[in-house]
Amino acid sequence: MQNLEHVDPLEPPLSPQEEHESDEIEEQKHFQKVLMALAYYRRHSLIMNNRRRYDYMLLPEQHKALVPHLLQKINHVDGLIEENTKILKEIVRASGIFSDGDLRDSVSKTDTQKPPVSANDMDKVRSTLKQFVRDWSKEGEAERQASYEPILNELEDIYCNVPIEERGQLRVLVPGAGLGRLAFEICKRGFSCQGNEFSFYMLLSSNFILNRVEEPEQYTIYPFVHSFSNIRGSDQQLAPIRIPDVLPSSIPPTADFSMVAGDFIEVYGDGTKNQGQWDVVATCFFIDTAKNIIQYLEIIHKILKPGGTWINLGPLLYHFENTPGENSIELTLDDVRDVAQKIGFTITNEKTFSSTYTSNPNSMLKYVYECSFWRATKNQ
């Protein structure tokens, strides 16, 4: 692909070492921005909730009299935001980069300045709280059953004759692992599994939930207090969600569980390092995160052992389709199947499963994806 960026001919190009150092600096800046977003959650959320309080106070008195409980609810949400802040502080502390005081000082300096993070950054923090529900709560079980169970069942079907105590030699890769629940469930069944994740929001949170939690339901969050739309009843909206529903350390001793940070293409697409190293690649709501989905398929094929299996479940909601300044190739489902077969896969066991994604189970509005599922075997 051609690089169309204008380069000043009088300015010498960066050396490989300079490019690497520049990338590291940018990565560190982004990492610090994510930490700042987690630290800024409290102030941003209280400001947004105070807007509701202000709007309520502007109501005519006769309208206030009809819904006197609404102000009480708004005040109560302030307290639940404080509860959410507690776990976000723990996530930041688990990162080992900044102390609470450092972040508190950084946030306090923004009192008279513009916010240190964007609205999009804050949306990602709220999405992270919902991801905890999907991956590590009893309330997320239905979503996990819809999107993880078909993959786990397929894995069990392939290796039904291999005892759990002997599965540790089988290596499974889960790109786009999020908070790590699918990878954990694969390990729980005896397989050695590596999760790969690019988002620092997910990496920090998965590090916390996988390595710092000591008992089930140790923490309580309130992930649905940030929107008052499509709510059936306040009791459901304000109900506590306790995480995790299981202890993440409860895996067989023969299974190896690891998480690798970084872009899927950069980590696994480099030369021959990962070629033929994996028995299974399991992708769940992942392949549409690609800018070039063909490259994803090529890498999956390359890193699988001959006869290895790619198990996929998910939609094709291409993440970069409408992102300014980003290239994006959007293939139809038929195109994806065709390319996979041309690359060297034999696709079998195709199905469709309906699933939501990080939805409020009690909301009046749910986006339901008709997810395509298949088992694809790498040709010998």
From TrEMBL:
GO terms for biological process: methylation. Keywords: Methyltransferase, S-adenosyl-L-methionine, Transferase. Residues 1-25 are annotated as: Disordered. GO terms for molecular function: carnosine N-methyltransferase activity. It comes from the Eukaryota. Coiled coil: none annotated. InterPro entries: CARME, SAM-dependent_MTases_sf. Its EC number is 2.1.1.22. It is an enzyme of class 2 (transferase). PANTHER family: CARNOSINE N-METHYLTRANSFERASE (PTHR12303:SF6). Belongs to the carnosine N-methyltransferase family. This is carnosine N-methyltransferase.
